Amino acid sequence: MAGAVGGTGGSGWTWRPVARDPLLARAFHSCTELRGRFYLVGGLLAGGAREPSSDMVVFDPAEGQAVRLGARGGPRRSHHDAALVGGRWLCVVGGWDGSRRLATVSALDTERGVWEAWTAAPGSYPPAGLSSHTCTRLSDRELRVAGREGGTRTQRRYGSIYTLRLDPGARTYCYKEEGYHTVSRSGHCAALLQSPGPHPGHQLLLFGGCNSAEPEVAGHWNHGKIKEEPPVAPRLMEQLASLVSSGQGSRQGPRGLRHHSCSVVGPFAVLFGGETLTRARDTICNDLYIYDTRKSPSLWFHFPSADHGLKRVGHRTCLWNDQLYLVGGFGEDGRTASPQVCILDLFI
């Protein structure tokens, strides 16, 4: 499984397989790194499946091994998102349970190995139901939730923005709708990046999930407001900087892309795969996009691949130990889940 970008400068990229296990074969799951392990929750085990999985698999990238966690009472979910709280609780937010879209929070206490159903605090105003949304950590107790609410018959013509506050001591959560909206999006991704230009700070950008090619700002914070420390990946950052300066990528952003992956690597947002809304056939993609925020205005770089074995939708990428991992997703047929874990290799 490899995709390369050729050129006179010898620049290229590939997804290099490093592990394979049937337990990992799923799509539209969540994948969250905690203490050097990837926690995979739920998802669909095959295309066309109506019932999401309720199991949890823990993958150890150092050992290349996956095990099913025996915690009982796991939520049956797909098209959800997950975030860590207090370095201990893995909070699963919203998603599809096989019959409806939810806005509830279920939390795995990773120290006790027990699932907990947290309750809504007084004054919480939850969304009508969430699926294919995003949850981004702003602090250890606060998430920013973005995405379209409800089903296809009840969804609004715009996307709502919510702040979700989590209290692990009380086992409660509280939604507050923000006073502004975004373009109606579903299957998008979100990236918390430092703002370019003379006034440093942070901005939350939404990519894809609609026909627009441009990212949309779903929040802006002045310098010092965001305390989140992203994983350090100096080698990968250097390689991405070399790749975008190689002249091999076109200055083109993704248009009409959904159910792709996104990981923040320093000043770069790295997007891969997904499903395009611009074609009726051959909709699953194998393209690598890099969004470079080092200067204002930020720039897109597009690195396509001719390898159909790279096509992925409903997958996840995870940054750990200066490497970007690709986990799960359906392949070219949109039905067969990949059991592989791969690492992004960049050749400069």
Concise summary:
The protein has 348 residues and is mainly beta. The protein is built from one helix and 26 strands.
Structural class: mainly beta
Number of domains: 1
**DSSP strand (E) fraction?**
35-45%
- List SSEs in N-to-C order: EEEEEEEEEEEEEEEEEHEEEEEEEEE
Main sheet properties? 5 strands, mixed
Give the strand tally. 26
Oligomer: single chain
Low-confidence stretches are 1-10
Computed CA radius of gyration, to the nearest angstrom: 19 Å
Strand order of the biggest β-sheet: 10-14-13-12-11
| N/C terminus separation | 19 Å
Principal-axis shape equals: globular
CATH class equals Mainly Beta
Q: Provide a count of the helices.
A: 1
Can you tell me the CATH superfamily?
Kelch-type beta propeller
Provide the CATH architecture: 6 Propeller
Helix content: under 10%
Q: What value does the average pLDDT take?
A: 91
CATH topology: Neuraminidase
GO molecular function: cyclin binding
InterPro entries: Kelch-typ_b-propeller, KLDC9
Keywords: Kelch repeat, Repeat
Subunit structure: Interacts with CCNA1.
Task: Name a few traits of the molecule.
globular, 4-stranded antiparallel β-sheet, 3% helix, Neuraminidase, 26 strands, kelch repeat, cyclin binding, Kelch-typ_b-propeller, mainly beta, 348 residues
